[in-house]
Amino acid sequence: MVLPDSLIEVVDGPEEGVDEGVEEQSDAVHKDDIMRVPGEKEEFDFAPDRLSPRLGLGRKVVGEMTETYGFSKDEEFSMIWEYGMEDKLVGYVGNKEFMKQFPKGSRGYLNSLAVFPYAANKGFRRYHGRVGVYPNGTQAWVPQEMPPPIDSVNKTAALKRGGFYLDLSNALELDRQPKDHRSSVCKTTGWDYESMGDASVVITFYNEPLSTLLRTVHSVLNNTPPPLLREIILVDDHSALPEDLPGEDLYEYIKLLPKTKLLRLPERRGLVWARLAGAHAAQGKVLVVLDSHVEVNPGWLEPQLERISESPKSIVFPQILSLDSENFEYKKESGIGCWLSWKWNMVEQASLTGELKDDAPIPSASMAGGLFAVDLSWFWELGGYDEDFAMWGSENVEMGFRTWMCGGRLECTPCALTYHIYRNGGVGYSSPDKSVWLNKLRTARLWMDEHFLIAKEFIDTKVSIGNVDKILELKERLKCKPFSWFLKNVDPTHEIQSLEDVQILGEIRTIQKHKGGIQCLDLLGNKVGEPFGVFGCHKQGGNQRWLKDRKGKQIISALDDSRCLGRDKEGNAKLYYCSEERYSENWIYNNNTQHFEHHDEDYGVTCLAIDKEPTVVKFLECDDNDLNQLWEFDIWIKPEYEPLDYSDSYKKQHFSLP
Fold first, then answer.
1. Which residues form the Ricin B lectin domain (predicted)?
2. Which of 134, 197, 382, 402 allows an S-S link to 138, with CB 3.0 to 4.6 Å?
């Protein structure tokens, strides 16, 4: 893949010239040479295989660093060109504990050399020294005054700035140490650093408040052994830079962070293209992707790199626990665990992981997408991200399908823990609706084969998915397996293994007329925890379209397949998350009685019925004589499926067609 020449702008420092005696650098430097991104806000175009590096703070300063700390000529060159030493206000001094474990000049040795001086802080280790501090010892980040608890202020207004309590984030230190929530089996593991490839950590952001972004970087530097970290690449997806967001302060702060670089896209392209830009700039063996509002647990990276060294075609991800958006506490009881499936609207379906018996990697059908690690060469062999995706959304589900079906594995490393802020208050990574639907539809159409016929009922199909030639060519080149293989071998518990399993994909109607007409089961616009009911049938789908298989499991809303029909202990109709199987499973349609039976170990068998109020449904004792318990639906008949094909222009070019 070739990125457009104008895709990336590199934030560079002031050009001060080169001292005599320093070998002149070529204007064209191959992308395999490190790209240094100094701190000043001067921008220039960057083509993916040509760089124009410039000197930042000057050779005089570097010479003083070299003389002071005793770098050899080769080490000095590496520190300048590979770790941006000229662009830092603090000199690299190395971490001798790790340097002595590696041959001099090796990658592990050099990674361990690119470390700032160390200063103890509150009893926890800083693997990369004291970061965010000027040479005179002054801390650059000064926390603001601690705000009152969020419940005592206007919570809605407080959460609008970032999707979390920004005033509290701005009052917290950048260096925090999470409580170590790893299982006991994880804390006894030793690591062979020499066997692991080093990582380029790519953190993309758009309008991310400075405090959470910098806390993410500090957390990575503090908790990552130096030999394992080649660089941190921050990719700014052309943030608007209003108050509270990264701007001049970020450009200056980069000078106080070892191994850290900044790319700024000249226009907003979305998360997918921002990550691609970071991946193209990456120099490490392993690409690690992180969101811009996370903190990492001690030992977060080692299990991921170890697994990739054992299984280079595995994409791995950590357990993602919750960082509370209102009080910034570390929560182990919420978040995303190791097994993820997918929903028909092309988002992941997550579950938490309990106490571990061992530290073995856990295969997963999907992933959250914001935090993962992959061998960089395998990432490109897989085709990287789909270039025709817009902005963001469903790239994680698509990557899960693609990885498994095309010869790789997707796995959770359960001993790797991270903490993630799940934004609150309706604030998130905004994106035009059309781009979200394009990504969903493109994922389903390109990878699900005939199961697309179900998925399209959950997706807006009024958008064009664009050109498909590159993905079809990729699938042919990698000999990718069909979606039926994926379901059978990777996700065998998914509710629809075969299209023949589908019983209902449409409306569920009353047989008895109510309010002068036939009524249909309807979401009524309600959320989880609220009732469902009936409304006059309108033949428009939406709130009245349902999916049910023949195995008597769940009745799923086609408008939002996280919502399933269920009952509470009083027999009231209630919407549950489909993941709450205890309350929403075991629906059976009795063809003889035309009843919808709900089987429950506590309440026995009850039947869905229209209540006295015409829009309300309840669960009652089954009664063959009660006309309000009679329901019908149309058996779903599979439509004709038309496989995708190359475009006419592609055929003409590659198949010698007239």
1. 506-634
2. 134
